[in-house]
Design a protein that fits this description.
1 helix; rod-shaped; 0% strand; mainly alpha
Length: 28
Amino acid sequence: MFQKSDFWIGLAVGVVAGVFGYRFMQER
């Protein structure tokens, strides 16, 4: 069964990775 805690953890990781990747692309 899909747990809500796993959803929030995955969402947080995705947001952090997206922001980091966006900033990295802006630097180059």
